Amino acid sequence: MDHSFLSALILLLLVLDPLGSLPIFIPIMRAVPKERRVKVAVREVGIAFLVLFAFMFLGDGFLRVMHLSERSLEVAGGVILLIIAMRMIFGSSGESAYGVEPGREPLIFPLAVPLLAGPSAMATVLLLASRQPDRIMEWVGALTAAMLISGLTLVLADRIRKLLGDSVVSAIEKLMGLVLTAIAVEMVLAGLKRYFIGGL
């Protein structure tokens, strides 16, 4: 399953799911003074970008050290994305697990990792870099653009929810979940096809 810059950008946005992060982001940021919220959001997005950037460039070496094939990564990545998509569509009661201690400013956890740079995002950048390493700069560009859009969404979180309303944000997230489900199934099928046709 080869990607273009645009398809990689869309895939990363679906995986990062900035709209779906709003219900978690807003309660966490309530404890942060208003004048600090933009700085904290930018900092956490920057940390998440660095984590995913590192995974993108260390991906090939990681696969070799762990003796993993691209086919197994593609199937595993598809399964992870499918789980994330199911969570987006049907909702999850685990959002409270992302809480921080009262009065403390979030640092790395839970906004940067795992909210943005979670297992699904890590698997996605690893897959992009390992499948088409000759286009690594395109994937860096797609990741940069996706993180900028996610950062802007988080900075404008309160305004977006007030403008669209909770029901519209929820509907958009479920629609994104449906699209991500199709992408996840395609990734699994592509990995299995390469395994059975290409052999071991």
Question: Spans of 5+ residues with little confidence (pLDDT < 50)?
Answer: 93-98
Largest sheet: none
Rounded mean pLDDT is 83
Q: What proportion of the residues form beta strands (DSSP E)?
A: under 5%
The count of DSSP E runs of length 2 or more, i.e. the number of strands, is: 0
Multimeric organization: single chain
DSSP summary: helix tally: 9
Describe the 3D structure.
The chain has 200 residues and is an all-alpha fold. The protein has nine helices and no strands. It has helices at 5-16, 18-30, 34-65, 70-90, 111-116, 119-131, 136-155, 157-164, 166-198. Helix 3 (34-65) runs antiparallel to helix 7. The chain is globular and about 55 Å long.
Main features:
single chain; 200 residues; mainly alpha; 79% helix; 0% strand
Summarize the structure.
This protein has 200 residues and is mainly α. It contains 9 helices and no strands.
